[in-house]
């Protein structure tokens, strides 16, 4: 039972870290042109 006092706050911190990383990626434009990146695989050099 005592381990929950450690695991619950750590999981909350992890969720905030993941949400912050997702917000940062969206804010920086990482997902703006998803279709173009998928088509780039099939192009020949």
From TrEMBL:
Keyword Protease tagged: no
Signal peptide: none
Domain of life: Bacteria
Stretches that traverse the bilayer: 6-26
InterPro entries: Cyt_oxidase_maturation_cbb3
Key words, A-Z: Membrane, Transmembrane, Transmembrane helix
S-adenosyl-L-methionine is among the record's keywords: no
PANTHER family tied to this protein: FIXS PROTEIN (PTHR41532:SF1)
Protein name, as recorded: Cbb3-type cytochrome oxidase assembly protein CcoS
Gene coding for it: ccoS
């Amino acid at each position: 039972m005592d381990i929950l006092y450690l695991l619950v706050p750590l999981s909350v911190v992890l969720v905030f870290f993941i949400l912050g990383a997702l917000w940062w990626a969206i804010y920086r434009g990482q997902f703006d042109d998803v279709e173009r990146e998928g088509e780039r695989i099939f192009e020949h050099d």
